[in-house]
Structures are given as structure tokens and as C-alpha cells.
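Q: what does this look like with (2S,3S)-3-hydroxy-2-methylbutanoyl-COA bound?
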Amino acid sequence: MSLVAYTIQHAVAVVAIDNPPVNALGAAVRQGLAAAVAQANGDATVTAIVIASAGKAFIAGADISEFGKPPAAPLLPDLLDAIEASAKPVVAAIHGVALGGGLEVALACHGRVALPAAKLGLPEVKLGLIPGAGGTQRLPRLIGAAKAFPMMLSGEPISAGLALDYGLLDEVVSSDVVAAAIRLAEALAAEGRRPVTSTATVALTEADRESFEALAKDALKKADGMPTVPALVEAVRATALPFKEGVAVERKLFLSLIADERSKALRHVFFAEREVAKVPGIGSEVKPREITAAAVIGAGTMGGGIAMCFANAGIPVTLIETAQAALDNGINRIAAIYDISVSRGSLTPEARKQRLALIKPAVGLAAAAGADIVVEAAFEEMGVKKQIFGELDRVAKPGAILASNTSYLDVPTIAAATGRPQDVIGMHFFSPANVMKLLEVVRPQGVADDAVATAVALGRKLGKVPVVVGNGFGFVGNRMLEQRTRAAERLLIAGALPHEVDAALVDFGFKMGPFAMADLAGNDIGWRSRRARGLKAAVADAICDAGWFGQKTGRGYYIYPQGARTGQRCPEVEALIARISAEQGVTRRAFTQAEILARLLDPMVNEGARILEEGIAARPGDIDIVWINGYNWPAWRGGPMYWADSVGLDVIAKRLEAQAAEAGDKALEPAPLLTRLPAESKGFAGLRTDS
Ligand code: T1G
């Protein structure tokens, strides 16, 4: 059955795409569209053509899953040229989203009509690309380069209303967009007017170009090494050439980007982020419980941030503390954070007022009685958690979800403190909770499927990226982070210095390295955790024994003069590290940045392999999504498991064997999965642990 339907209404050919779920422009759709346009032009009774679609999207763009495969005719640019060259006017009837190639189809039409809720955009830059089917040449000709460039640079869609203001749409109609498109098509046929964007010269005035060049200059300064920005600037500049030459420039740039490793990684992340929403064993038949009111236990940094997530999503939330003073501090901290957003212009005073009004402070757990979900964010100590959950079991209403924000404690043990383990789950937010996208949903044995579905659906409503993980120390992210932390400590003792270790990760694409991060978060956090678990880390412990907790004490691994945010190398710390190396009988040596990177990341990948072997994560892509959304792993590197595949699992396994031998530490030896996969000529890609 064709994915493109062809009917005639009032002598207008209505060409309707129906390619669920989002009408991506796969080969069959392109072929159907080409045939329909040809058929309409060959039919003397047809006066004009409308392109419409079924489902939730007009057209979501090219079919990203086709990239990297041999292209099938007709190529999208050729199809769009055929639409534009049609002797009979073609009008796009837009509902839902017209994105990427979808908007490029509309741009090749002779008219465009949309519903008010429609959104139009060119998001290719988010995939490490630029528009590749005439978008960089047609959009500036239609609305001006100064408006088109920011749309393509941000990749963010604009509303139908703004598109109308820009001249990107001819009309916005409240209903029946196809009928409106038919009317416009008939009018264009009658008038013979065929405004064609490829020749439109109205918008590209000298003043427009000057405005664009100013924007381009600023964008190039902030490009941060990504090739998409210079490519986009070059493509838009090519609008000064005749259309065909400009399109040739765009095509060349597009093809170079589509072959770039960074775009391949971003396309992996696109699909991994959608896969992660599919929780093994929980299909769409499992309905989430309704959440109309929440409660958060603990008004500290995490509890306050979590309460803000609910308020920001419009969900009333009771913020509970054990004493009024702590509660007041928590509320004041939240108000101060909102004040900063208002001062930055990212939040209106009215919205600030509304959100604060949704946060109801209260003392005592009894205030949680009316909540549909309670998120506990109290002190990270099992005794405290068991006491709270025991009381919540008596207070909370039947069917309420009881979630703990614990970052590494055993969720089944917490659940056992209640008589309703089926309702107890982990919801591990990342600090600052109102900012970081990652939410680890910890799924202990015995929790109800609909409780898991509720936590995932709620996470998405809160604007998070929920990843369902199994119960186990540190779950996924922190468990792998601990391996990197240990590796960083080993590097200091073996001969590297803090700024060298940090530079290796920053040059790789992280925002900060481990030691700058520790100084920012506070070195005493790790210190307390190690002491609670009876673990030692010679350098990290010595730093804390000296009271050098980081930025909050003016010094940690680095010195922060006058409260500076960027640390300076500290001779005392470097001498302390050298002394510890000597005490351990280690002859210090220099490390290349490549060696530092391998020694930091290989053990993380190894732990990720173990996590997969234990079924704590369902897919390698889930681990990638955890690290990109929770720890600022650069998305254009695809995530730790994607990176490992790009390096080669056999290479990583060999390096781990060498490290294990050098350190005399069997824990560093490659996990069985890390040797089995390369032996079967496989990588992590496509692996599933739930199959
Ligand atoms: N190609 C292939 N599959 C796609 C797709 C696409 N463009 N967009 C979505 N899907 C799949 C997705 O993987 C998921 O599959 C299902 O559709 C629902 O997606 C030449 C080169 C449209 C706003 O970047 O932003 O055009 O998991 O969960 O939340 O210049 O999808 O169900 O099997 O996201 O309702 C440019 C990408 C492409 C838009 C809908 N276009 N898509 O959001 O559903 S490059 C994009 C989205 C291009 C041209 C260039 C969103 C959405 P499954 P979903 P949603």
C-alpha cells in the first residue's frame, strides 16, 4: 500500500502522506510524492496540487535511519526541484511539525498554509548537519538571511504565528487546513502567480546581508569547534550566488557533515534517547498513575531543586522539613534561584510568583498525606531513609508512589521499611535537580510496573530524560563515575598532575575535569562517602585532611584566589602528590594526554560492560544517555559505550589488561563481555540485555 494517497477535490489533486509515526521522507514517500506530482501535471482536469499528511506531524524531515545507506532515487533535492518546477501550483497544508526536509518540502511549494499549533523548523544542526535539500538557499530568499540564519543555527522551530509574520506562511487557519490549502491552490492557478522561493530576491537586501554577517561573526566566535556553524555560514553566504550554484555549495557542505564522526554520534544519540523511553517488559498497555499533587521530603539543595521541578511543571508540591528553620532556608534558597532567572530574563516575575505559590512549605511528614507521589531527598544514610519510609507508610495515601532520591543506597532495603514495596521506587535526580536533565529511575525487584511507568511519565513531564536502571550500588552513572575517580587518583600517584588530568577530559569535550569538578562540588563529599565505606584514596584523603575542600574553602586541588571560579595550580598540592608517590615507592613519570584519557575512560567502559552483564542497564545506548544527560559527556562523542565502539573493544580490553598488570589490580581486568564481543567481531551497538 502506497504511503502517499492521491485524491481529487474540486479539480485539485490532494496528495496525502501517511507514513507513521511522523511522516519521515523515506524513499517510498519520496517516490510516492514524485509520482503524484507527475500524475497531477499529466492530468488536464487537475488545476493545482496540495501536499498534506496524516498523523501527528506534517513531515518530520528526512528519514534519519536512511543516512549512511546507499541513497535511493529520487533524492530529496531532486524531488523538491520537481515540486517547484510543477506547471501547476503546489500548496503545503501544514499541521503538527514541518521540520528539516519537511519544511524544505514546504519551501519548494508555491504556497504554505498552517494550523495555529503548527511548528516549523530546520533542526539539522542538532544532528551535526545543516539543511541538505535547499533549505539554506530557499529560506533566506523567502524571509531574509537575518531571520533564517538564527532558525538554522539554533535548530529550534518557530510557531505558525511567527512564521506568518516572517512571510514563511501565506495563511494560518483555525481548522481544515487542507480546505484552506485547496482554496489557495485554486487562487494561485487562477492568477497564474507562482511565487518560487528559489528565485525570490525580495528578502536578500544589502541591509539583510549585513545583519546576517553580524550574526554569523558572533556565531563563529561561539562555534566551539563544531563544523556545523562555519558550514551553515558558508551555505547562507552562497545565497549571493545563482540558486543552482548555491544549492551545489550547500550539498557539498551537507555531504561532508553527514560523513563526519560527530554527526554520526549525534544521530546515534537521537535514536538512543528514544530507545531509552522503551522500558523492557512495560508496554503502552501499562498506564501511569495520575499525579496531581506531589510532596518532597527534605528542603536541602536536592529537595529544593526537586520541588522546583514539580512547580516548573505546574504540579503543586508540598515541601516538607523536620524543623521550621530548615524549611525557611529551603524556601529562601528556591526563591533566590527564581530571582536569578528573573534577573536574567529567563523567567517573568509573574511566572516566579506562580511557581512559588505551587510550593507549599510544611513541617512534619503528615503533610504528605494528600500526595500522589512523595520524593524523599533526605540525608544519604540508610537509617534515616528507613525511618522516613516507615513513617510515610503510615501517612501516605494508598497507591501513592514513594520514591527515594538516593544516589547509591539499596532501594529494596528502603522498600522493606514499608508494607507497600510495590509502590517504592528510586528517582535519582542529578544536582542541580532543577537543571540537570538526567533522572535515573531505579526499578527494584517487586515494584509494580505501573509505578515504573508513572516515574518515567512523570520524569518526562518534569522535562527530564528518564532512564530505567536496575538496583545496584551507584546504579549506572555514579557506579561508572567511581571508576573514573579511582583512575584519576591512580594517575596522580603514577606521575600526572591535576591540571593535566583535567585538561585531557576538557580537550575531549567535557566542560570540566574530575579535579576541578571535585573542587566545585566539595572534596569533603567524596571524603565522607569513602570513610562511611571504609575506603581509602591517599591523595584525595590528604587534600581533605588538610581542610582543602575546594572552592568553598578557597582551595582544594587548585587555589581560588579571592573566590575566583577558575583554579590555579597549587605547588603545595603538587608537592603533596609527589610525597605520596614516594611513600608508595612509585617512580613518577610523564603521561601523554592520550594515555590519561585511556586510563580515565577505559575503566568506565569496563564498568559499563559489567552493568550490562548484570542487566542493570537494558542497552548500551541507555548508558550513553545517562552520561550525556547526567555528567556532560559531549553528545557529539556519542556517550561512553558508543565511544568504546569507535575505539574498538579489543583495543580497550588490551589496554585494561596492561593496566591491571601494571597496577597489580585484578579489578581492572576486562569484563567478560568486553572480551566476548570483539571475539565475535561485535561491538556494544545493538546489544540488548533483556533479550
Ligand atoms: N527520521 C526517522 N525517524 C524519526 C524521525 C526522523 N526524522 N523523527 C522521529 N522519528 C521516529 C523516532 O525515532 C521515534 O521512533 C518516532 O519517530 C517518534 O519520535 C534533508 C537532512 C518529530 C518532534 O531532526 O524532533 O531532514 O522510537 O519519540 O516526541 O535537510 O521525533 O517510535 O521507533 O521523537 O512526538 C530533521 C527529528 C531530519 C526531527 C516528534 N528532522 N524528530 O516528537 O516523537 S534531517 C529532525 C523530532 C533532515 C534535510 C535533513 C521528533 C518529533 P520509535 P519521537 P515525538
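The first strand starts at residue 4 and ends at 9. The chain has a mean pLDDT of 95.
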